[in-house]
Amino acid sequence: MKIILKIISALGLVLTIIPSLFVFNGTITMQNNYWLMGIGMLLWFGSAPFWMKSKPLEEDN
Amino acid sequence: METNTATEENSTLISRLDALYEFDREPVSEKKLHGWKTFIGMFSGEHIAGTEFVLGFLLFQHGVSGKDLILGLLIGNLLAVLSWAFFCAPVGVKTRLTIYWLIRKVCDPYITVIYSALYALILCLLAGSMVYVAVTSISIPFGVQNPNYPTDVIPNLPWIIIAVVIGTIIALLAVLGFEKIAHFAKVCAPWMALVFLACAIAALPAIGINSLNDFWQKAPSEIFKGVPLNGYSQYTIWHVIGLAWLCNAPQHIGMSDITIFRYAKSWKQGFASAFGMYIGHFGAWISSYIMVAVYLKVIGSTSPQPGDVAYFAAGLAGAVCVVVAGWTTANPTLYRTGLAIQVLTPNWKRWKVTLAAGILMIIAACIPAVVHNLDRLVAYNGIAFVPLGAFIFVDLWILPKMGLESYYTEKKRSMISWPAGTAWILSFFVCWFLYAKDNFEFLSSFPQPNWLANIKADLMYLLAPEWALAVILYLLFSYLQQKSSKLKMVTN
Predict the structure, then answer these.
(1) B231-262 pLDDT, tens per residue?
(2) Which candidate, B109, B108, B165, places its Cα nearest to that of B323?
(3) Is A3 in CB contact (< 8 Å) with chain B?
(4) Is residue A53 part of a domain?
(5) Minimal Cα distance from B196: which residue of A?
(6) How far, in Å, are B80, B202, B476 from residue B123 at the CA level?
(7) DSSP assigned state of B146
(8) Which positions in chain B touch A24 (Cβ < 8 Å)?
(9) Interatomic CA distance for residues B466 and B428, integer angstroms
(10) Which CATH number covers residue B220?
(11) Residue B286 has what pLDDT?
C-alpha cells in the first residue's frame, strides 16, 4: 500500500514540474499547464501525508 | 519592607519562568539524539515558505541586477550555513539546552523576559505578513481587490473581513493542533519547491522566452534589469548578501536554533541548513524574482501581490501554494509567539495566549506596510537579538580561555547581569543610531561631524559590526565584573 502511495506522490510531483517545461518550449498551452498542475497537486496531497514520516524531535523515541 | 517586596517579585518571576519551562531544564539525553535526515527535512521544510514569495519580490522591486542577485545569494546563503555550522550547532551540541535556559544562565531572568516580549512582537508581525500573503490569493475568487501599497494604507473592508476570517482560522488551528500542522508543513515542502520552480519556468514564454538561448539573450533586458521601481531604493550585492545571510540572524548568530541543535549527534549537522538555504533562499527567491518581473511586464501592475502573480503563473496550484505557504509559516510562528507571550503572562492558559497572539497577527495582516517592509522587519529582528548570541558565544568559548568563569551571574545567584544588559543596550543603540541618523527626520536634522556624516550604513550592513561590538563589550564588562569581584573578596 505504501509503495502505491509513493508512486502516486511521485506522479503528483512530475505533474507539477514537467508541464511547465512543455509550456516553456511551446508544446502545451498555459491553460493545460494550469489543469495538469492542479491534478498534480491533488495527487500529492491525496497521498503524501499518509506515508511521509515527520514527527516532532521530542517524540521520535 | 521594600527589600522584601523586591525579593518576592524576583522569586515570583523566577518561579513563573521555571514553571513554564519545567520540562526543558535538563540537557537532552544521548538516546534522544537525531541524525542528518531529521535536520535536512527540518531545514528544507522551514525555509521553503510564504516569506520566499515576498523577499524575491522585494529584491526585484529594489532593482537588484542579475549578477548581484545570483552572486549575492550564493555568498549570503553560504555565510548563513557557516553561521549555523560554526556558531549555533556547536553551542547546541555542547550545552544541549534550550535558548531560554542558556539566556537565563548566561544573562539573567529580566533579559529573558525582555527577549521574549520583543521576540513575540516581531513574530506577530511576521505571522501577520504571512496571513497577508495568503489573503492576496484567497481574495482572487471572491473578486476582492488586493491593496495597492503605498496608495492603500489600509485594505478595503471585504479584504479585511477575509483577513479576519483567515487569521481566526489559523489561530484556532494553532490552538487545536500545532504538531499536526507542523507535520503537514513538512509534507508541503517538496511540492511547494517545485511549484516555485514551475511558476518561474511557465511564466517565461509570456515575455517571448521559449528556449535557453532566448533566456540568455533576453533575461538581462527583460527580467534582471537592475532598476528599482518607483519609490524603492537601489539594492546592491551587499544588500543581497546581507539579506540572505542575516534574514535568519536571530536563529544562527543569535543562537535561537540551539533549541533544535541540542538534538544533533554532531555539530557538523549544522551544515544541514544548506538544504533550506539553497532550495528556499536561493532557488525560491530567484523564482519569485522572475515571476514578478514577467508579471509586471505582461500585466503592468504597479503593486504586484503574491496571490495574483502565482495564479498568473500556475493557476489554481499557484494560488493554493501561496495560501499553503502563508498558512504553514504563520502557524508555527503563531505558536512560537504564544510561547514567548506566555513568559510575560504565565497565569494565562496556552489557548488564551495563542488567541491573543492571533489578534495581534490579524491586526498586522491588515497593515500592508508591514509586508512591504518585510526586509526592514527582518533587519530589526536581527539587530535586536544578535547581541544575545554574541554573549552566549563569548561566555561559553572565550571567557574560560581568559581564565574567567562561564555562567557567572547564575553561579553568583545574582538577579541582574550588568555586563549583558549594558552590552545589549549599547551595541543595539550604537548600530541603530548609525542607521537612524540618515533615515529618521528627528535625528537627521541635527548637525553631524564629517566623520559621522560619511558613515552611510543600512541596517543590513550593521548586523555583523553589531555582533563584533557585542562580543567586545561583553568581554570587557565581564572582565571588569569578575576582576572587581575577586578584588573585593581579597580585600574582605
Answers:
(1) 788 899 988 998 899 888 888 999 988 888 88
(2) B165
(3) no
(4) no
(5) A17
(6) 20, 34, 32
(7) P
(8) 201-202, 204-205, 209-211
(9) 7
(10) 1.10.4160.10
(11) 94
Query: Does B50 map to a domain?
Result: yes
Residues of chain B found within 8 Å of residue A21, distances taken between Cβ atoms: 201
Q: Which residue has the cell 517524540?
A: A59
Domain range spanning residue B294?
Answer: 36-376
In this predicted model, what pLDDT tens digit does every residue of B427-443 receive, in sequence order?
A: 999 999 998 888 888 88
CB contact under 8 Å between B316 and A41, yes or no, is yes
Domain count, chain B: 1
Banded model confidence at residue B2, pLDDT cuts 50, 70, 90? very low
- Name the residue range of residue A34's domain: 2-48
The alpha carbon dihedral of A22, A26, A30, A35 has a sign of negative
User: What number of other Cβ atoms are within 10 A of residue B380's Cβ?
Assistant: 18
Closest CA–CA distance from residue B93 to any residue of chain A (Å): 15
The one-letter amino acid code at B117 reads A
User: What is the predicted pLDDT for the residue at B84?
Assistant: 96
Whether A61 maps to a domain, the answer reads no
Of the candidates B345, B383, B362, the one whose C-alpha atom is nearest the C-alpha of residue B462 is B383
Which site among B187, B192, B257 would you substitute to test the A interface, given the most A Cβ atoms closer than 10 Å to its Cβ?
B187
Is residue B195 domain-resident? yes
Separation between Cα atoms, residue B470 and residue B476, nearest integer Å:
10
* Confidence category of residue B198, pLDDT binned at 50, 70, 90: very high
Within a domain: B17: no
Please indicate, yes or no, if residue B468 is contained in any of the structural domains: no
For residues B393 and B91, the answer to whether their CB atoms sit within 8 Å is: yes
CB contact (8 A) between residue A24 and residue B202: yes
Burial class (CB in 10 A: 0-12, 13-18, 19+), A26: exposed
Q: How many domains does chain A have?
A: 1
Predicted pLDDT of residue B162: 93
Q: Which helix (H) or strand (E) holds B382?
A: helix B374-393
The C-alpha angle with vertex B389 and arms to B30 and B469, in degrees rounded to 5, equals: 150
Nearest chain A alpha carbon to B262: A57
Q: Is residue A41 part of a domain?
A: yes
Q: What are phi and psi of B168, to 5 degrees?
A: -65, -40
Q: Is residue B3 very low, low, confident or very high in pLDDT (cuts 50, 70, 90)?
A: very low
Q: What is the ipTM of this complex?
A: 0.93
Residue of B nearest to A51 (CA): B187
Work out the number of other CB atoms within 10 angstroms of the CB of residue B150: 13
The reported pLDDT for the residue numbered B490 is 64
pLDDT digits (tens, 9 = 90+) for B293-324: 999 888 877 677 888 888 888 899 998 998 88
Least confident of B41-45, B59-63, B119-123, B276-280: B41-45
CA distance B479 to A7: 62
Tell me the mean pLDDT in the region B395-415. 90
In a domain, A30, yes or no: yes
